[in-house]
Each structure stands twice: as structure tokens, then as C-alpha cells.
Specification:
Elements lengths: L17 E2 L2 E5 L6 E5 L3 E2 L32 E5 L4 E4 L8 E5 L5 E3 L5 E4 L5 E11 L2 E12 L10 E5 L4 E4 L8 E5 L5 E3 L5 E4 L5 E11 L2 E12 L12 H11 L17 H11 L9
Parallel strand pairs: 5-11, 12-18
Antiparallel strand pairs: 1-4, 2-3, 6-9, 7-10, 8-9, 10-11, 13-16, 14-17, 15-16, 17-18
Helix pairs in contact: 1-2
Length: 290
């Protein structure tokens, strides 16, 4: 493209002169007229010759687009172990992109500007985004926070206690929880939201479905704890206090607490066999039970 440059009042422009006028380039009806301010631009003739008014310079002019401005968000969050994506967007038709300082597991497409992958660890990174075209490069800082995976509760799903006896249960979970909770606890028990310890002395027999939870910045893991509190008299923990429990109390008082032999040969080792063992130890002086 060749341009003819005129000085003020059609006077010649010498090499190195400062242009303080406006250059208008007619691009035809399909594009319209492009007016470019050229104040502050110096023209230098390669040969140092004076250019007469109206003369052709014989040179070319490249019209560059404005530098891209990144318009995508300046913050983003992801989770370790979970697929992540973030699209760099910018004005003025960028032709290439970049992102430096990405956390492990993520990469950027320099063609499309898509940041993607699966982050491998929790971290907060200040990522430098860039978008470029022939006019230059625009940049922006992306604050990218990768949270840890949500906790998974690993402690047992069942527990038992006894009325009037101190009870404790520790909520355990993976992925470093920072807070715990337990709802639906029976009377007399409470939970430490800091340590996850359920403790206290239950005051009544009951079976409760307790909702356990463990949380961190990545989310909350939950599990149901089936917690049964038995009466102090329900020694065999069958949900009923009856003569069998009374007999077990007698056996405990006599120092016999476990079944060691199927003495009545009924195919089961149970409280009846324990009682026969007790009777035998007493020389059959105290015959109680079958």
C-alpha cells in the first residue's frame, strides 16, 4: 500500500519531520474510511532526501489492531482430583494466549486460551494470563484457588453405649477436615465441632440415627451412625431387660462372664450353659435355671 504524505500548506516534508496532521486511508465501500491520528510519529526517508509536496514516499504503512484486553474473570476455584477448565477471553481478536504459574496438573492451549486439566494438590496460585495480536500483548492476573477434596468419613457406622456410663466416639475422616458435626444425638451426649469427639453420659435407652459430618474448604462428607444406648439392666443388649439379664448379673457377681462349653448339648453356647457352669462350680448347691 503506497501513501502520499503532504505537509502543511502543501510544503515539502523533510526527513525526520514530525507529522501533526491526520492521515485518512480510504479502504473502499466494503470497509469504509479509516482515519488514523499520526501526531507524534516521525517519518524518515531512508536516503535522507527532501520529499516534495504531493510526492509518493514509495513506502508502506501497516495498520495494527489495538492490543487485546483480557475480559475473563480474575478469580477462579477448583478442587484437587476434579477436572477443571477456565477460558481466557479478550477483546481485539487475540491470535495467541498464554498462562504462567499454573498449579500442577493444569495446562493452557496457546491457540484457544483454554486452561484445563485435573489439579493434583490444594494450592492458591497467582497465574499470569496473556493474550496477544499483531498490536501487542494484554495481561491480567488470575487468582486460582484449588481446594482439597471433600472429606470422607471413615469411622464406624455403628456404636453402642449404656445408660449412666460414660460414652465416647471419635469421628474420623480423610482429607484433613477442619470442622465436624453430629445431629440427632441421644440425651446426654454432645460433639466437639473442632475435634469430632462425641462424648458424655447417656441418660436414657434409645436407638438413634446420628448424622455425622466432616467439612473442609472442598466440601462436606456425611455418614449415618446407628447409635444404640442400652439400659444398665440389659446386660445381653437384646433390647429387653428380663430374667436372662438378671441371671447374667448373678454370673458376673460369681466371676463367670463367658460361655466356654455347650454343657446341655443343644448346639449353642449361651446363658444356660453359663448357669450350668456356675452350678457346677458351687457343687450343685445352688441350682438356678434350666
Amino acid at each position: 500500500m503506497t501513501f502520499i504524505i503532504f505537509g502543511f500548506n502543501q510544503t515539502p516534508i523533510t526527513s525526520g519531520s514530525l507529522l501533526t496532521t491526520k492521515l485518512t486511508i480510504s479502504l473502499g465501500t466494503a470497509v469504509g474510511n479509516l482515519s488514523l491520528p499520526v501526531s507524534g510519529v516521525f517519518y524518515s526517508d531512508p536516503n535522507g532526501a527532501v520529499i516534495a509536496a504531493g510526492a509518493s514516499t514509495g513506502g508502506t504503512v501497516s495498520v495494527l489492531p489495538p492490543v487485546p484486553t483480557i475480559t475473563s474473570a480474575g478469580t477462579a476455584t477448583g478442587q484437587a482430583g476434579t477436572a477443571f477448565s477456565y477460558q481466557i477471553t479478550a477483546s481485539n481478536s487475540p491470535t495467541s494466549f498464554n498462562a504462567t504459574g499454573l498449579p500442577a496438573g493444569l495446562s493452557v492451549s496457546t491457540t484457544t486460551g483454554l486452561i484445563s486439566g485435573t489439579p493434583t494438590a490444594a494450592a492458591t496460585s497467582n497465574v499470569t494470563l496473556s493474550a496477544s495480536n499483531a498490536g501487542g500483548t494484554g495481561t491480567r492476573t488470575l487468582t486460582l484457588t484449588i481446594n482439597p477434596p471433600a472429606p470422607a468419613i471413615t469411622s464406624a457406622g455403628t456404636a453402642t453405649g449404656q445408660v449412666g456410663t460414660a460414652f465416647s466416639y471419635q469421628i474420623a475422616a480423610s482429607n484433613s477436615p477442619t470442622r465436624f458435626n453430629a445431629t440427632g444425638l441421644p440425651a446426654g451426649l454432645s460433639v466437639s465441632t473442632t475435634t469430632g469427639l462425641i462424648s458424655g453420659t447417656p441418660t436414657a435407652a434409645a436407638t438413634s440415627n446420628v448424622a455425622l459430618s466432616a467439612s473442609n474448604a472442598g466440601g462436606t462428607g456425611t455418614r449415618t451412625l446407628a447409635l444404640t444406648v442400652y439400659s444398665a439392666c440389659d446386660l445381653n443388649q437384646d433390647g429387653a431387660s428380663n430374667v436372662v439379664d438378671v441371671q447374667l448379673q448373678v454370673n458376673q457377681a460369681l466371676g463367670v462372664t463367658a460361655c466356654t462349653s455347650d454343657l446341655n448339648s443343644d448346639g449353642a453356647c449361651n446363658v444356660i450353659d453359663i448357669q450350668r457352669d456356675v452350678n457346677a462350680s458351687l457343687g450343685l448347691l445352688c441350682v438356678v435355671g434350666p
